[in-house]
Design brief:
It catalyses: ATP + H2O + H(+)(in) = ADP + phosphate + 2 H(+)(out). Its EC number is 7.1.2.1. A hairpin with an 8-residue loop joins strand 21 and strand 22 (515-523). The two termini are 28 Å apart. By secondary structure, this protein is of the alpha+beta class. The chain has an eight-stranded mixed β-sheet, with helices on both faces. Strands 16, 17, 18, 19, 20, 21 and 22 form a seven-stranded antiparallel β-sheet that branches. 43% of the residues lie in helices and 14% in strands.
C-alpha cells in the first residue's frame, strides 16, 4: 500500500482515514461521507449530477441553497476602525497633553487638542476609505474565474458563482476555486495533475492527483489539465471549516516602521526639552536675594508656582506647547494617505498593488529582471510559412496541417491559436477526426501530445509539439537530420524567430516511435515602445536584465533590436558558475556573473529564483516579471514581483504588483509613479522632523533663557492649519528622482536638525530684535515691543508724570520683584492703590476690582505700570512670533520638495492653495489676536497702563484686563493682535527663507544625497544603471560595468515578511480577490485530526424540493 501511495504521489492527506472507511464514510446511515474514499459514481450520485455539468436552472436552485462560493465576510466596526487611528505612540503623546490640560482645568486647550486628534483621525479614515474603495473597484475585474460546463458548454464564470455539482476544468496556472473531485477513468494514471497544496499541508513539492482524487480550494495546479466535479463551496470547503486555523498576522508594514523611528526621534527630542524646562524651572539653583539689600541666598531659577486652573502653572502649560507643537501628529495621516492615494492612482494607470510596501520597494528597485514574451515583445505570434523546414517525406502544407491538429481544441494558448489560424483548412480539419486525448504543456518537459483518432476506422496517431531540441531528441531519425535542424534553429534565432518542432507517431503507445515532421518559425515582434522604455529605465538608474526561456540567439537578437546589452548567457553557464567553474574574463564567481550579465536564456523556474536570490544577496532591490505558474516562486522571492497582463492566477497570487496593461512601459510608469509617491512621503518626513526640532528649540530656548511663554492655543492652531495643510502633499506635483529611492533616515534627521536649528535662529533673532531693542520703533515707527527694564521704567516714568501720579514723598518704588530686578531704587511714585482707578470706590470702603490685592502689598504705581506694559508687549510679541513661525515653518515644504531653486520649482495647485489658506488664517489671527485671551488669573480692570507704546489704546484689545504685579499672572500667555507687525513677519520669513536653498545644497553635497556630490565632480552617481555597448564580441569575453548596489536601508523585505504583509491586508473572512481567492487569511499548521476529516461532508436528506444537502463535517 505504501509503495502504491508513493508511486501515485499521495500524501498523508490523501491517505488519512483510508484504513477505516466505515468510520469515514457513513453513506448507509446517511450521516457523513468522505469524498476522498468514495468512487466517482458514488460522488456524482450524492451530488445528484453527472459529468456533463449542471443546467442554468439547476445552478440557480443550488445557488439559493448553498449560497455563493466565498467565506462569510467579517464586518469591521467602522467606529473601532476610526478609533484605531488614535492608537499610536504619537497620538498617545497628544492624549497625554490632553490629560495635562484637564488636570490644569484648561478646558479650551483640552477641547482643542481632542479636536486635533479627532480631525486627524477623520481625515485618515475618510481618505483611506476612499482610496480603498477605488482600489477594490479596480481589482474587481481581477476576481478569480473558473471554467465550468454549464448547459453542455464550457463557460468562463466568476469562481464565486460555483455550486456543488458543477463540473469545472482546471489546468496549469489555476488556483483551485472550490473543493473538487477529479473526473475521468480512475484506472488511468498516465497524465496526472501536479497540485501544489503547500498552503494546506506545508509540503514543499507538488503532489500527483489522478482521476478520483480530491483537491482543495486554494491549491495551485502546477501541471496538467483535468475536469472535476465541485463537492464543497464557501464555508463548507476545508478552508471554510478549518476556522480555528484562520490566523491573522501581526506583520508591521515598512512604512509603519519608518513612522515609528521618526516618531521615536521626535518624542525623544520633546521629552528632553520637557525635562530641561522642569529642571530649570524647579531645580536649577540661582543665587539672589529676595529683598533689595538681603544677603545672597540660593533660590530656584524662575521660581514659578504651580496650581490647578487656567494660568495657574506656566511651566506645565508651556510643556504642552513643546508636546503639541513638537509631535508630528499628522504624520500617520499624511504618509498613509499618500501611500493609499498613490496606490489608487497606480491602479488607474494599470498597476494594482497587492502589498502596500511594494510601492516603496518599487521606488527603490535597482534591477528589473524581465521576461521576454509578452513583456518586451507583443506576444502576437505569426508563422513565416516561407521558411518552414519540412521533415523527410513531408511538405510545408503537411507541417502546417499536423501543427494545427496538434493544438488543443478550444484552447486560448497563443501558440495553439496561431497554429490553427495559420492553417488554411482549419475549418474542416476535424470533420472526420477527433482529439481523443491531450497531454498539456508543462515547463519541465516542454512539449504537448495530442491524440488524433479517426472514428471511421478507429486508427489513432499522436502529434508531438514543443521545443525543437526536445522534439529532435525524441525523433527516431535524430542522427540523420540533427545538423540540418540545428542549423535551421540557429538561422531562425539569428532572425529573432522562435522555433517549434512537430513530430508524429502512429498508434497510442506510451513509448511510440516519433518521426520528425518539420520545424516552424514563430515570430513575436518587439513592442513599439519597449526600446524607448528601456532607455527610460537606464535614465532612472534601473538595469534591465532579460530572463527568458527562449534560445540564447533569440534573446540576444531581441536585445539587439531593443538597444539592450547582448552580454547574455545560457543557464548552463550559470549552473557551472555555481559549481565554481568559470571561464569568463573579469568574473570571479557566480555573484559577479549574474551581476554583470545583461540576461539569461533557456531559463527554467528554478534558475529565475536563483538569479533573484543572488542579486538580493549582492544588496540589490530586485523586480521580477512573470505570467505563468512556474514564475510564482521567483515572483514571491523578488522584492517586487510583477505579474504582467494576462498572468495566471497563481502568478497573480504570488506577485506584489499586478499589471492590467501589457508591456514594459506599464512597469516603468508604475516605477515612476512609485517614486513620486516616495518623494511625497520623503518630503513630509523631512518637513515634520524639521518642525519638531524647530518648535522644541525655539520655544524651549525662549522659555529656559528668557522665562517667556507661548500659548497652547496658538500651537494647536499652528498644528491644525500647517499640519492639516500637509494632506495636500499626497497630491503634490513632484518629479521622480533620477536614482532608486530608499529611506535614508540619517539624512532625514540630519537635514531636519539643520533646518530646525536654522529656523529657531530666525525666530530667536526676531524675538531679540523686537523684545530687546527698539529697532522696529525707530526704523519703521511701529509700536515698541521692547521689554527691557530700562525701557519700561522710562515709559512708565513718562506716563505716570503725564497722568499726574507723581508725589513729593520719597519712598521705595517696590518690594523686590524678580520680574523687574532693576526697579529697586528709591523713587518718587506713590502706591498703586492711590490711583483712583485701582483704589476704593469714592464714598465707599468697597474696593475696585483687584484693589484688595494691590492695596496693602506696597506695590508702587511704576511696578504696576511695568507689569501691564510688559504683559501687553509680550502678548503682541506672541502674535508676531506665531505668524513668523507659521509662515517660515510651512515654507520649508517648498525647499525640501525640490532639488533646485524652490521658488522656480512649481508645486501642485493644492499645495499652494493649502499654504496660502493656512498662512492667511495665521495672518488674520496674528493681526487681530484674541482680545487678551487667556485672561490673567489675578487682573485689574480697566487697566490704565495697557496701552501701545505711543500712548493710544490697542484697537483689537477691548477687554482691558491686565495682570496685577507681584503675581504669577504676569506670566499668563495671553494673545493680543500685533497689528502691522504681521507684515514684518512675512518679510522676516521671506528674508530667512532665501538662504534655505543654499543650505539644502550644502547638506546635499555633504551627504551626497541622490548623488549630488558625484554630479558636482562630474562622476556618475552611484546606483545609476549603465547601458552596454553593442559590439560584436563573444559574450564570454565582454564584461559590462558592474551595477552599484543601492543602500537598501529599510526597504529590504524577506519573502515571509512580504507574505505576512499581503495577508494582513485581507482580514479573515474578507472580500474575495485574486490575492485572497477564498476570502481567507493565512493558515497555521494543520492538525492530523483535521487532515483526516478534510474531505468529510455531512449529507442531510429532505432538503429543498426533496433534494439532499451537504455541509462540512464537524
Amino acid at each position: 500500500m505504501a509503495d502504491k501511495d508513493k508511486e501515485n504521489g499521495e500524501t498523508a492527506m490523501d491517505r488519512a482515514g483510508g484504513e477505516d472507511k466505515a468510520g469515514a464514510a457513513k453513506t448507509a446511515s446517511g450521516d457523513e461521507v468522505d469524498f476522498k474514499d468514495i468512487s466517482l459514481a458514488e460522488a456524482l450520485k450524492i451530488l445528484e449530477c453527472d459529468d456533463k455539468g449542471l443546467t442554468t436552472a439547476e445552478w440557480q436552485k443550488r445557488l439559493e441553497q448553498y449560497g455563493p462560493n466565498k467565506l462569510p465576510e467579517s464586518q469591521r466596526n467602522a467606529f473601532l476602525v476610526f478609533l484605531g487611528y488614535m492608537n499610536n505612540p504619537l497620538s498617545w503623546a497628544m492624549e497625554a497633553a490632553a490629560i495635562i490640560s484637564i488636570v490644569l482645568i484648561d478646558y479650551v486647550d483640552f477641547i482643542l487638542i481632542l479636536s486635533l486628534l479627532f480631525c486627524n483621525a477623520t481625515i485618515s479614515f475618510v481618505e483611506e476609505s476612499n482610496a480603498d474603495k477605488a482600489i477594490k473597484a479596480l481589482t474587481s475585474a481581477l476576481a478569480p474565474r473558473a471554467k465550468v460546463i454549464r448547459d453542455g458548454e464550457v463557460k468562463a464564470i466568476e469562481a464565486i458563482d460555483l455550486v456543488p455539482g458543477d463540473v469545472i476544468v482546471v489546468r496549469i496556472g489555476d488556483i483551485v476555486p472550490a473543493d473538487i473531485k477529479l473526473l475521468g477513468d480512475e484506472a488511468d494514471t498516465s497524465s496526472p495533475l501536479q497540485v501544489d497544496q503547500a498552503a494546506l499541508t506545508g509540503e514543499s513539492l507538488p503532489v500527483k492527483k489522478f482521476p478520483g482524487h480530491i483537491a482543495f480550494s486554494g491549491s495551485t495546479i502546477k501541471q496538467g489539465e483535468q475536469e472535476a466535479v465541485v463537492y464543497a463551496t464557501g464555508k463548507n470547503t476545508f478552508f471554510g471549516r478549518a476556522a480555528a486555523l484562520i490566523a491573522g498576522t501581526n506583520a508591521v508594514a515598512n512604512i509603519q516602521k519608518i513612522m515609528t523611528r521618526i516618531g521615536a526621534v521626535c518624542l525623544i527630542t520633546i521629552g528632553i526639552w520637557c525635562l530641561i524646562e522642569l529642571f530649570v524651572q524647579f531645580f536649577l539653583p540661582r543665587y539672589g536675594g529676595s529683598l533689595p539689600n538681603a544677603p545672597l541666598q540660593p533660590s530656584y531659577r524662575w521660581r514659578h508656582s504651580c496650581i490647578a486652573g487656567i494660568g495657574g502653572c506656566a511651566t506645565l502649560t508651556n510643556m504642552l506647547v513643546i508636546i503639541v507643537g513638537g509631535i508630528p501628529i499628522a504624520m500617520p495621516t499624511v504618509l498613509s494617505v499618500t501611500l493609499a492615494l498613490g496606490a489608487a492612482r497606480l491602479a488607474k494607470e494599470g498597476a494594482i498593488v497587492a502589498r502596500m510596501s511594494a510601492v516603496e520597494e518599487m521606488a527603490g528597485m535597482s534591477i528589473l529582471c524581465s521576461d521576454k514574451t509578452g513583456t518586451l515583445t507583443l506576444n502576437k505570434l505569426s508563422v513565416d510559412q516561407k521558411t518552414i523546414l519540412p521533415g523527410e517525406g513531408y511538405t510545408s502544407d503537411d507541417v502546417m496541417k499536423y501543427a494545427a491538429l496538434s493544438a488543443q481544441i478550444n484552447s486560448e494558448e497563443a501558440i495553439d491559436v496561431v497554429l490553427v489560424e495559420s492553417y488554411e483548412g482549419n475549418h474542416s480539419m476535424w470533420n472526420n477526426l477527433k482529439q481523443s486525448k491531450y497531454i498539456p504543456f508543462n515547463p519541465t518537459d516542454k512539449f504537448t501530445i495530442g491524440y488524433v483518432t479517426n472514428p471511421t476506422d478507429g486508427s489513432t496517431y499522436q502529434l508531438l509539439k514543443g521545443a525543437p531540441q526536445v522534439v529532435l531528441r525524441k525523433s527516431s531519425d535524430k542522427e540523420k537530420i540533427e545538423k540540418d535542424v540545428n542549423d535551421k534553429i540557429v538561422e531562425f534565432a539569428n532572425r529573432g524567430y522562435r522555433s517549434l518542432g512537430i513530430a508524429k507517431a502512429d498508434g497510442d503507445s506510451k513509448d511510440p516511435t516519433w518521426h520528425f515532421v518539420g520545424l516552424l518559425p514563430l515570430f513575436d515582434p518587439p513592442r513599439h515602445d519597449t526600446k524607448e522604455t528601456i532607455a527610460r529605465c537606464l535614465e532612472k538608474g534601473i538595469s534591465v536584465k532579460m530572463v527568458t526561456g527562449d534560445q540564447l540567439l533569440i534573446g540576444k537578437e531581441v536585445a539587439r533590436q531593443l538597444g539592450m546589452g547582448t552580454n547574455m548567457y545560457t543557464t548552463e553557464v550559470l549552473i557551472k558558475a555555481r559549481e565554481g567553474i568559470i571561464h569568463l574574463e573579469g568574473v570571479n564567481d557566480v555573484d559577479e556573473l549574474v551581476e554583470h550579465a545583461d540576461g539569461f536564456a533557456e531559463v527554467f523556474p528554478e534558475h529565475k529564483y536563483a538569479i533573484v536570490e543572488i542579486l538580493q544577496q549582492k544588496g540589490h532591490l530586485v523586480g521580477m516579471t512573470g505570467d505563468g505558474v512556474n514564475d510564482a516562486p521567483a515572483l514571491k522571492r523578488a522584492d517586487v514581483g510583477v505579474a504582467v497582463a494576462g498572468a495566471t492566477e497563481a502568478a497573480r497570487g504570488a506577485a506584489d504588483i499586478v499589471l492590467t496593461e501589457a508591456g514594459l512601459s506599464t512597469i516603468v510608469t508604475a516605477i515612476i509613479g512609485a517614486r513620486k509617491i516616495f518623494q511625497r512621503m520623503n518630503t513630509y518626513a523631512k518637513y515634520t522632523v524639521a518642525m519638531t526640532f524647530r518648535i522644541c528649540f525655539t520655544f524651549g530656548i525662549l522659555t529656559v533663557v528668557y522665562d517667556w511663554y507661548f500659548p497652547t492655543l496658538l500651537i494647536v492652531l499652528l498644528a491644525v492649519f500647517n499640519d492639516g495643510a500637509m494632506i495636500a502633499l499626497s497630491k503634490d506635483r513632484v518629479l521622480p528622482s533620477e536614482l532608486p529611492n530608499s529611506w535614508k533616515l540619517f539624512n532625514i534627521f540630519t537635514t531636519g536638525i539643520v533646518y530646525g536649528i536654522y529656523l529657531s535662529l530666525s525666530s530667536w533673532v526676531l524675538f531679540y530684535v523686537a523684545a530687546k531693542t527698539q529697532f522696529f520703533r525707530d526704523s519703521i515707527h511701529l509700536p515698541d515691543l521692547n521689554q527691557r527694564d530700562v525701557t519700561l521704567v522710562e515709559w512708565c516714568t513718562r506716563t505716570l508724570n503725564d497722568f499726574g501720579y507723581a508725589t513729593s514723598t520719597p519712598r521705595n518704588a517696590a518690594v523686590f520683584n524678580p520680574a523687574f530686578p532693576s526697579v529697586t531704587a528709591t523713587g518718587i511714585y506713590q502706591d498703586a492703590c492711590n490711583i483712583p482707578e485701582y483704589g476704593p470706590k469714592p464714598g465707599s470702603n468697597a474696593p475696585q476690582q483687584g484693589a484688595s490685592i494691590i492695596c496693602g502689598t506696597g506695590t508702587s504705581a511704576v511696578v504696576q505700570c511695568m507689569a501691564e506694559q510688559k504683559w501687553m508687549r509680550e502678548s503682541m510679541l506672541r502674535s508676531l512670533l506665531y505668524v513668523q513661525v507659521s509662515i517660515s515653518g510651512q515654507a520649508v515644504v517648498f525647499v525640501v520638495r525640490a532639488t533646485g531653486w524652490s521658488l522656480t520649482s512649481r508645486a501642485g495647485v493644492l499645495t499652494y492653495a493649502a499654504f496660502f489658506f493656512a498662512q492667511f488664517a495665521a495672518t488674520i489671527i496674528g493681526l487681530f489676536g484674541f482680545n487678551g485671551y487667556d485672561n490673567p488669573r489675578a487682573f485689574v480692570k480697566p487697566c490704565i497702563f495697557c496701552r501701545l507704546s505711543g500712548g493710544g489704546h490697542h484697537p483689537f484689545f477691548t477687554a482691558h484686563k491686565a495682570p496685577q504685579a507681584l503675581t504669577e499672572s504676569l506670566y499668563t500667555d495671553s494673545i493680543i493682535g500685533c497689528e502691522a507687525y504681521v507684515i514684518v513677519a512675512w518679510i522676516w520669513a521671506f528674508i530667512w527663507y532665501l538662504p534655505l536653498d543654499p543650505i539644502k545644497w550644502f547638506m546635499a553635497y555633504v551627504l551626497n544625497e541622490d548623488g549630488f556630490r558625484d554630479r558636482m565632480h562630474g562622476k556618475r552617481p552611484q546606483n545609476i544603471a549603465t547601458e552596454t555597448e553593442n559590439v560584436d564580441l563573444p559574450s564570454q569575453s565582454r564584461v559590462i560595468p558592474k551595477p552599484q548596489a543601492p543602500n537598501k536601508g529599510s526597504l529590504a523585505r524577506s519573502s515571509a515578511q512580504k507574505e505576512a504583509e499581503k495577508n494582513q491586508q485581507s482580514i479573515p473572512g474578507g472580500p474575495v480577490t485574486w490575492t485572497n481567492p477564498m476570502g481567507r487569511h493565512s493558515m497555521s499548521q494543520v492538525s492530523q485530526n483535521q487532515l483526516e476529516r478534510a474531505s468529510v461532508m455531512s449529507v442531510h436528506k429532505g432538503g429543498p424540493d426533496g433534494r439532499s444537502s451537504l455541509q462540512g463535517g464537524k
